[in-house]
Amino acid sequence: xxxxxxxxxRGSKPVFRELSAEDEExxxxxxxxxLCMNCYKNGVTRLLLTKIPFFxxxxxxxxxxxxxxxxxxxxxxxxxxxxxxxxYTLKISSKEDLNREVVKSDSATTRIPEVDFxxxxxxxxxxxxxxxxxxxxxxxxxxxxQPIRKVTDPDVAEQIENFIKKLEKLKDVSTPFTLIIDDxxxxxxIESPCAPHTDEALTVTQYQRTVQQDKDLGLVxxxxxxxxxxxxxxxxxxxxxxxxxxxQFNTNCPECNAPATTNMKLVQIPHFKEVVIMATNxxxxxxxxxxxxxxxxxxxxxxxxxxxxxxxxxxTRDLLKSETCRxxxxxxxxxxxxxxxxxxxxxxxxxxxxxxxxxxxKNPFTAGDSTTPERSKKLQEFGKQIQEVxxxxxxxxxxLDDPAxxxxxxxVYAPDQDPEMKIERYERTFEQNxxxxxxxxxxxxx
Length: 446
Description:
Largest sheet: 5 strands, mixed
Strand content: 25-35%
Distance between the termini: 58 Å
Structural class: alpha+beta
Helix content: 10-25%
């Protein structure tokens, strides 16, 4: 029996390792004696923890029973659950849209409202497919027991047959229809062929999960928060003590999933407000990440900051991008939506490099046989334009649009006004308040 050593779990080696012919000794499956559900005798389950390049961590399991020769294989996602759920809404109006690649996790609900079609969460395994592939998979599932239904219940079989024809007609795209993938775990994805430009046919919405969705995902609600807060109050710590203290808590590396430690600290940004900075450094794979959370409330007005980049020295400006902030570069027809890249406290150059890495270098649909020369060329050209902006050879406008008002761009002329930077305050729309969850807040008579 092969076991995962304590040394591997504790961080000297990544828990999930990419498949490699050169790593045969270390990448042996773990064998566990388990019950056979066919003959109820003991068999062997083999587990392999690995990582699919440009996708996520998975657990490959294989069961074999020597007594009845029954076998079973399965693949389970081991990727982390995101902080927010995500809902993709795609307006399909041409056959090209059917070729968009889709990552659908186990917890995602798939809907096509025009034909009253829905695949509930946890009824299908996760899949990496296309829009057409999702429809074909649904058709194959409905056809599976049709011969039996035609004998036992002809009326139901006829209704299902008529519905299958509706699904097959969708592939002709004779009339536009809508595909909705709603995933509380945030691990689903629909490809945007227009990237890095705005995709008019695709709408991405981030949202806070409900209590029921947390239960469905197996997340344990913390009912002891109030008691912990009371204990903290009795400890005598002041706000000043918390500002000077670096808090630590155990977590897992977002890159290799090995155990790691996250440091957290309160920081006061001059001429702005207080924020919480969290940084993780993985000893196993060397991955480093940082994230910023606003330490204050949502502002009464949204904030739009526009900087006209005129000199390479602008790249050194400090920048705070909250999770609710959009990044826009009009000259490149580029827009980065809410929650993408998370919250960041960095420089303008650092954020542009992160955008380039996300769009060009780490894009899962620009590598392997899933890409096309046109798409790869377009993204490489965008990467060169970003590099020109960083070098100061391409002058553009850089816009931070934050409905919550919690983003910041350094004014190098402070306390005087910056002639190259414009700050606007605006009233949020109903849709923006809905995305921030403000419409559901009750602050009176509760």
